[in-house]
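The following block was generated as part of the benchmark described in Methods. Ligand: fe (ii) ion.
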Amino acid sequence: MGITSDRVVGSAYGRGQPEPDNELTRVGPGTPMGELLRRAWQPVGLTPEPGSPPRAIRILGEDLVLYCDGAGRPGLVEPRCAHRGTTLYYGKVEDDGIRCCYHGWKFATADGRCIDAPMEPEATMANIRRTVVQPWYPCLDYHGLTFAWMGPPELRPPFPTWDVLEAPSENPDRPDAILADATGYGLGGGTVLGCNWLQVFENVMDPYHVFVLHSTFSVQQFSDAMAVLPTVEWANTDTGVLTYQDRTLDDGSTYRRITECFLPNARIVPNVGAGTPGEGYRSGGALGFVVPIDDTSTTMYSLLRCQTDDDGVAVFPPRATWNGRSWDELTEAEHQAMPGDHEAQVGQGPIAIHATEHLGHTDRGVQMVRRRLRQLLRALDAGEPLGGLASGLATVSSVAGNELHPPGRLPDPPGAF
Ligand code: FES
Ligand SMILES: [Fe+2]
């Protein structure tokens, strides 16, 4: 018998299912958040090898074709050929554009214009050159990732660089390397999470879950230093929200970890191997973009600032482990017994239903992210200047990192309170 009281409060019977927060979660063309995400340069994949076969991608609910022409310029186009609509996925990449397989029309990387239609007589070709454009998005390569501008063409800002990637190396004799990653580094397992982007993104402003999910619930998934219960604070910044977590280590020193998010969808998370030999405590090196594939699937593209070994080869930063094994080596029973970020976030459902949540003090960072996003949506709707990565800033500054401070006075915390 499992019933201990005749009084039943909050029975599951007839509970219904409220709608998701559509304003914050829907990303397709024409949706509020979809439009906000299109007001920042978005990474769409590793930049392909010049001249390699076209790649089918899906981002923000749009199917597109990514390629890199023979001159090394990335191109991103609507798949349906402007002639009669077969997909350019079967096209051929040439020095200055992409050529369709069906009738050979070629579209320029530089501006999408049709620059060749081999079966057409010159009389019609002149008109085709003047009028036919394959729908395309401007894009560029930055450290091995292709970034696209999917917003209104007339509002395209300069591409911002990131100080975390451009700052000189601490040791000039052994300069850091930057690795472009499309394996889902930082997602906690797998390259794609079958859930909405927001529950992935807001997770980085939820540092308390590190102590439960990653440290004490099952096995310790990060370093020893990361497993210490921290004191936690959050702060708004010009570009987003940050959290800092102070952990007092056995020798009385303080390990301060600062994690930062940049609205609408980028984050810098210092690596989770803090304090381990060879890793120590370093400024945040993992710039990740939480990229919606569509409303219910999400990936992450990262630029990882890495140390290099004696041969100058980049050392891939530590990932979470489960009893020394990686996420994809676990059986289903082990995933259930030792859940990580993947399980917890996909476990919130395809689109987390905010209306059924009960938020506490420890969710303050999540609330700040949602509030700031909503402020941006209001500004977008009103035609006002946007903040965060949608503000057109030239360089993005960051304070994220793992820091070790000897016993004594801590530096002032970062951010504006
Ligand atoms: S459908 Fe592409 S060239 Fe005809
Ligand atoms: Fe996590």
